[in-house]
Amino acid sequence: MQFGLCNASATFQRFTDEVTRGLPGVYIFVDDILIASKNPEQHCQHLKTLFSRLDEYGLCMNVSKCIFGTSTIDFLGFSLSENEIKPLPDKVKCILHFPKPDTLT
């Protein structure tokens, strides 16, 4: 896809949505893919299914950017785990330390 097109991001998102349509536990935002699974066996099956689909569409992954089999992960500005979703501290730091207004206008 050419750089600089005003709708390139939306077009690529639509394409990746089509690639991963119907895959259980797979969530994608542009080129970031999250796979949520209940157990290691299910995770392996989700990975196999995703890899097969990526291959079908001629897509590849940069393995050095991948994290496999973890129970917590930072994704799109949030820390995700089985029990909670919370914003990353460095993403809310400026809000927490924003000075209180000292005038009414």
Automatic annotation (TrEMBL):
- Report what the protein is called: Transposon Ty3-I Gag-Pol polyprotein
Return the Pfam families for the record: RVT_1
- Highest taxon in the source lineage: Eukaryota
Q: Which InterPro entries match?
A: DNA/RNA_pol_sf (IPR043502), Retrovirus_Pol_polyprotein (IPR050951), Rev_trsase/Diguanyl_cyclase (IPR043128), RT_dom (IPR000477)
Q: Which GO BP terms sit in this record? A: DNA biosynthetic process
Domain called Reverse transcriptase: residue spans = 1-80
